[in-house]
């Protein structure tokens, strides 16, 4: 057992960070945010989302094909490596339907190379980047399905209504009903939808993790720079303790996400629910605390922190909400309890029976 | 990243499971919490059983009488013994987890030979004399004095929050040997025999109603210089080794135990109807996530520490242990709050195990470095924020 990253994994992560620094610097994020591209999601005239050049660069770097075998044009790597790349994407707030396109690699032509953008729905609700997607994964049932269309056709095909997205870099549509299996342009894919949903939850958690660490960096650098009462605000314990709790959350989330990427086969649903639950919470609460550390500046459009918070809200509602994760984990406990052997501990004897007798 | 076990580690786990399966049913029942002599006898018998089976000091180095097991084997040991419901380390806590590792790391060959084998056999119990009434979080301000007199130190002062003092044979004691030196540089680590003339132990009753701790008064107690571990005035560094052990794997077994408790909570809640409350169910689900991840964090920290040891640092856990300590102490309190919710009115009866645990859990965010101190450590040493006040 060595839980730490291997040298190859570190190199992979560094490569992704370098790619994003070159292709998606902060100015790109800001120009997207400042254009407030969501007003007419995907409407002609607005900036293309996702950025096709960047999408192809990600495809060439193997971001989408990462887990395909080398014969299939992939890198033959696994979920642990995918998680590291998605963590970097989350750190940079990279927009686009990254998870769905990654999952579609090998299933939808063009996805692996970044030649097309694929979004996904597992239930009625908010769909990201729907107007620009060439395919939609439909993961509501036992078998995965794909709806293939020309760009711009998906909102109409799904009778989706554009939303004014809370996240200015992620256009959203609201879908009331998923199409029936029989519909003409829908094909059934040779993939288990429940496995894809679990992987989607894990990769989404990895993005949340990256964001949770990024907001620590933003908070700490602000707290060191900003001076009040004649010293950096980061020298006040009240501020220090906010930052310390941010790190605790992020470290716990990191541990959960990495562990789930390793044991997704063995203890899949519970480990992934754990990862999603803790990473969502870390991303949202860290963004909140980062905003607080920024003081008045945190309430402005100009600071990046609101972009992290809004993206975190969006991701937290995708695939597996906190309520769903917690209920799943509670049920796992109950299942374990039904197999619980009677312990040798004296304390075990005080369990149910004594609990009932003690006040009788 | 790899969480799989090697063939050797799997074999180790299988042998341990078989041994626990044979041994645990033959153990006597746990004695009452307040019967300290009986608890000592019980804990010592368990330690002796571990010793005779070759499991004592598993991860200690061979020169300290240990088995030189890998960190992974040590974690397997912690996980399997807790899962099987084996006795807790109990009265041997200080010896096995603080004083012993300190002596192993800093003691002379003669000191190791004198003190370590009885710890490993469960023959001698140690307690810890660090905190003082005026030196808690600010441990370096401790004032218990030791003045050199020939081959002895004459020690005068008082210590507080000393667990197991009433039944201990030895106390790992921090004393001030140079009052003129800067605070951290005038401290020395001594092994104090608890039966020495001038040692008075007064039990402290905790809010749980038990006597887990004691005050220890030292009036001109003579301690031989040969009982000093490490150089004179170097006790702070020696102690930091101990404390970082305390924050490393010391609570690992408890995380496994909490995870078991959580399953039993689910069973009880299901039996008494509380399971129908979605708010409570979700709380238990969240705690499941927290404790599962705290165990993973133990594995992570262990791997980091093992790597640090391989690459030349002293193998003591890094400041990442503060992250664990901070979250674990909170999660443990939340667990027993949830237990009270499951029990309902029964939680008001202190005879219930979970009520006793609810009370004792209140010490966790205070002992071994308060949560506030842990946050200071994280903010300043890990995040690099300016020194606060």
TrEMBL record, chain A:
InterPro entries: AcylCo_DH-like_C, AcylCo_DH/oxidase_C, AcylCoA_DH/ox_N, AcylCoA_DH/ox_N_sf, AcylCoA_DH/oxidase_NM_dom_sf
Organism of origin: Streptomyces klenkii
Record PANTHER family: ACYL-COA DEHYDROGENASE, ACYL-COA DEHYDROGENASE FADE28
SUPFAM superfamilies referenced in this protein's UniProt entry, alphabetically: Acyl-CoA dehydrogenase C-terminal domain-like, Acyl-CoA dehydrogenase NM domain-like
One function term, GO molecular function aspect: acyl-CoA dehydrogenase activity
UniProt-recorded name of the protein: Acyl-CoA dehydrogenase
UniProt similarity note: Belongs to the acyl-CoA dehydrogenase family.
Gene3D superfamilies linked: Acyl-CoA dehydrogenase/oxidase, N-terminal domain (1.10.540.10), Butyryl-CoA Dehydrogenase, subunit A, domain 3 (1.20.140.10)
Domain Acyl-CoA dehydrogenase/oxidase C-terminal: 202-312
Domain Acyl-CoA dehydrogenase/oxidase N-terminal: from-to ranges: 6-102
This protein's UniProt keywords: FAD, Flavoprotein, Oxidoreductase
Co-factor requirement: FAD
Keyword Acetylation: no
Coiled-coil stretches: none
Lineage: Bacteria, Bacillati, Actinomycetota, Actinomycetes, Kitasatosporales
From TrEMBL, chain B:
InterPro entries: Acyl-CoA_Oxase/DH_mid-dom, Acyl-CoA_Oxase/DH_mid-dom_sf, AcylCo_DH-like_C, AcylCo_DH/oxidase_C, AcylCoA_DH/ox_N, AcylCoA_DH/ox_N_sf, AcylCoA_DH/oxidase_NM_dom_sf, Mycobact_Acyl-CoA_DH
One Gene Ontology molecular-function label: oxidoreductase activity, acting on the CH-CH group of donors
Keywords: FAD, Flavoprotein, Oxidoreductase
Stretches assigned to the Acyl-CoA oxidase/dehydrogenase middle domain: 127-221
Coiled-coil features, chain-numbered ranges: none
Domain of life: Bacteria
GO cellular-component term (any): plasma membrane
Domain Acyl-CoA dehydrogenase/oxidase C-terminal residue range list: 233-383
A UniProt-annotated Pfam family: Acyl-CoA_dh_N
UniProt-listed SUPFAM superfamilies: Acyl-CoA dehydrogenase C-terminal domain-like, Acyl-CoA dehydrogenase NM domain-like
Residue ranges of domain Acyl-CoA dehydrogenase/oxidase N-terminal in the record: 6-123
Cofactor: FAD
Family: Belongs to the acyl-CoA dehydrogenase family.
PANTHER family for this protein: ACYL-COA DEHYDROGENASE, ACYL-COA DEHYDROGENASE FADE29
Protein name, per record: Acyl-CoA dehydrogenase
Species this chain originates from: Streptomyces klenkii
């Amino acid at each position: 057992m060595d839980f730490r990253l291997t040298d190859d994994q570190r190199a992979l992560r560094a490569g992704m960070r370098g790619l994003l620094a070159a292709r998606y610097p902060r100015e790109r994020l800001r120009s997207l945010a400042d254009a407030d591209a969501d007003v007419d999601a995907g409407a002609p005239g607005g900036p293309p989302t996702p950025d096709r050049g960047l999408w192809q660069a990600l495809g060439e770097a193997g971001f989408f094909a990462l887990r395909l075998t080398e014969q299939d044009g992939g890198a033959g790597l696994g979920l642990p490596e995918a998680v590291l790349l998605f963590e970097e994407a989350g750190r940079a707030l990279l927009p686009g339907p990254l998870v769905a396109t990654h999952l579609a690699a090998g299933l939808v032509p063009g996805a692996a190379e970044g030649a097309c953008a694929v979004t996904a729905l597992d239930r009625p609700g908010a769909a990201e980047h729907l107007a620009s997607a060439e395919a939609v994964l439909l993961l509501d049932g036992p078998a995965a399905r794909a709806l293939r269309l020309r760009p711009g056709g998906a909102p109409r095909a799904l009778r989706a209504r554009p939303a004014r997205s809370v996240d200015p870099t992620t256009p959203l549509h609201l879908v009331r009903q998923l199409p029936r299996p029989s519909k003409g342009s829908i094909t059934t894919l040779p993939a288990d939808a429940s496995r894809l949903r679990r992987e989607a939850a894990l990769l989404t958690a990895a993005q949340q993790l990256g964001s949770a660490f990024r907001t620590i960096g933003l908070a700490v650098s602000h707290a060191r720079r900003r001076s009040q009462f004649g010293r950096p605000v980061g020298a006040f314990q009240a501020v220090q303790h906010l930052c310390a709790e941010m790190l605790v959350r992020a470290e716990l989330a990191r541990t959960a996400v990495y562990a789930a990427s390793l044991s997704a086969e063995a203890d899949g649903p519970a480990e992934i629910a754990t990862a999603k639950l803790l990473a969502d919470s870390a991303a949202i609460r860290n963004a909140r605390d980062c905003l607080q550390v920024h003081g008045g500046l945190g309430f402005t459009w100009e600071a990046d922190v609101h972009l992290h918070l809004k993206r975190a809200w969006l991701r937290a509602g995708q695939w597996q909400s906190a309520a769903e994760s917690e209920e799943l984990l509670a049920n796992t406990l109950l299942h374990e309890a039904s197999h619980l052997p009677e312990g040798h501990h004296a304390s075990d004897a005080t369990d149910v029976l004594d609990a009932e007798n003690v006040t009788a | 990243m790899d969480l799989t076990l090697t063939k050797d580690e799997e074999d180790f786990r299988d042998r341990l499971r078989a041994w626990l399966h044979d041994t645990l049913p033959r153990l006597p029942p746990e004695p009452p919490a307040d019967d300290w002599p009986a608890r000592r006898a019980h804990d010592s018998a368990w330690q002796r059983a571990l010793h005779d089976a070759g499991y004592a000091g598993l991860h200690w180095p061979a020169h300290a009488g240990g088995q030189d097991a890998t960190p992974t084997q040590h974690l397997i040991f912690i996980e399997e013994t807790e899962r099987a419901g084996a006795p807790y380390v109990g009265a041997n806590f200080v010896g096995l987890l603080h004083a012993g590792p300190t002596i192993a790391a800093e003691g002379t060959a003669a000191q190791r030979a004198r003190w370590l084998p009885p710890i490993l056999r469960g023959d001698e119990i140690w307690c810890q004399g660090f905190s003082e009434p005026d030196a808690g979080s600010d441990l370096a301000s401790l004032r218990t004095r030791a003045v050199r007199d020939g081959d002895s130190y004459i020690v005068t002062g008082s210590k507080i929050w000393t667990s197991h003092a009433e039944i201990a044979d030895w106390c790992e004691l921090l004393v001030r040997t140079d009052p003129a030196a800067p605070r951290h540089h005038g401290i020395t680590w001594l092994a104090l025999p608890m039966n020495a003339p001038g040692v008075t132990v007064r039990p402290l009753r905790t809010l749980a109603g038990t006597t887990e701790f004691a005050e220890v008064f030292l009036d001109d107690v003579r301690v031989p210089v040969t009982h000093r571990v490490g150089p004179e005035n170097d006790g702070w560094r020696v102690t930091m080794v101990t404390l970082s052990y305390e924050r490393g794997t010391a609570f690992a077994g408890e995380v496994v135990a909490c995870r078991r408790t959580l399953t039993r909570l689910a069973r009880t809640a299901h039996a008494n109807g509380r399971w129908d409350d979605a708010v409570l169910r979700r709380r238990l689900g969240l705690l499941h996530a927290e404790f599962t991840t705290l165990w993973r964090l133990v594995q992570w920290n262990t791997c980091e520490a093992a790597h640090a040891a391989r690459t030349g640092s002293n193998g003591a856990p890094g400041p990442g242990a503060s992250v664990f300590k901070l979250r674990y102490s909170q999660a443990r309190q939340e667990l027993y709050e949830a237990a009270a919710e499951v029990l309902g009115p029964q939680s008001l009866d202190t005879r219930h195990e979970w009520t006793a645990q609810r009370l004792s859990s209140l010490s966790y965010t205070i002992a071994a470095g308060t949560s506030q101190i842990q946050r200071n450590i994280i903010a300043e040493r890990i995040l690099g924020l300016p020194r606060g006040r």
